[in-house]
Amino acid sequence: MIQKIKPIILAIALLQSYHSHSQPGSKPQNVIMIIGDDVGYGDLSCYGAQKISTPHIDQLARRGLVFRDAHTTASTCTPSRYSIFTGEYNWRRKGTGIATGDAGMVIRPEQFTMADMFKAAGYATGAIGKWHLGLGDRQGSQDWNGFITPGPADIGFDYSFLMAATGDRVPCVWVENQRVANYDPSAPIAVSYKDPFPGEPLGKDHPELLTKLKPSENHGHNQAIVNGISRIGYMKGGGTALWQDEFIADTIAARAVHFIKSNARKGFFLYVGTNDIHVPRYPHPRFAGKSGMGFRGDAILQFDWTVGTIVKALEELQLLDNTLIILSSDNGPVIDDGYQDKAEALLGDHKPWGPLHVRGGKYSNFEAGTRVPFIVSWPRQVKPGISDALFSQVDLLASFAALTGQQSTLPRPVDSQDQLSALLGSDKKGRQYIIASSTSLSISDGEWKYIAPNAAPPFYELTRTQSGNAPVDQLYHLKKDVAETRNLANQEPSKVASFKIALQKEKEKGYLLDR
User: Fold this and answer.
1) Distance between the two ends of the chain, CA-based, in angstroms?
2) Mind listing the pLDDT tens digit for each residue in 305-356?
3) What is the torsional sign of CA 127, 231, 291, 98?
4) Against a cut of 0.90, is the pTM above it?
């Protein structure tokens, strides 16, 4: 029944959009959302990085609004992206953890998404780059040699060109409109996350075949070998459809520019998920050695180039002034996340976490896990500046709905809040509080932050990250201690109690919890 109702609602909304009484020019002609991968709060020069320069992103920041307190809903990629597209906290739904490469669709076809909303508003919709939200109906059910369904078209995207998961997981092929791009019939594809394929060499057994990158110990990136790099998972086949890591950024940028040019007269919503700066980091040779920080630093430069390439295309088509661009990251930074790329040894004085650097990062409950770069550029409407408004990526859906006059299409209830005034700079405060998740839930009002107790380890050994897990209440005064070094829970019991009540109220809403 839900699957039947969704298209009816969207059809009505689309008709309404044609008769909208909003003023001409009150909404952007185009919206582009660029989500970097593992890009930390301190990885960009416009956020204070001194040892690396990101001129294209800096230029975007100079003519836009730079947020200092914007957050993802989770400290890892799949759950944070889930929340962006659905407007729902990832912790409300089972199965939103880090997805395998053969995971089924994490967002189900009956769910309402950001792409659905933009489509109802009359925009062409596209998704390019890293996906990591699953394809097909259930794990391991995909037909990699045919049409993969369900897929992005079932949740509102007119066009898609995607990495099924991420660079360190098989399958290592591009999927265009739910079929493997450049499919090679002479090399049929098989993927497994259970058993290796007989005769296919694995990184753990054949280090001599790892001509580009070798895995770090105990991270699990020592299985199928593609393009001289071993991955997580097992794969055979692919042939000429297999990607080459050094051309991933070029491919994403080229596809994004092609989509922009193809839809320049229609008005479009485009999601661009970069692989940079996620592992395996193996940038194009033109960036080699340019950062002085090895592959991780060079990947930051490549990320900056991707942004510059997209902006240049908009300028050439005279679309920049009326295009709303959001640039952010899916979670905080990590240095060694599975490959011997010398990222730690060559880090030097660079602090990927910026002022949050004492504790945490990707996989962590601390601020460095979820506080991310967040830039809003819309020259026609947004005045340049800096915003201290508390903002959560979960609010992008409702904020965009308000921007395009599509509030009536949103499901009720929904976690996403209309924070359009904060997004565009007129509201300086933003949310009352944000909620984020790692192993535990945390809640912050921008001044104080509470992390709920849990029994998980306090240290993530593989990446040498403090997880923020503890068996006791944690309370930090972020305005005085943004690096969360002093737990004040015992000194401020009333604040702890108020945060516990707020979290409990969110949990007791109960909607969608066990779906």
Assistant:
1) 15
2) 999 999 999 999 999 999 999 999 999 999 999 999 999 999 999 999 999 9
3) positive
4) yes
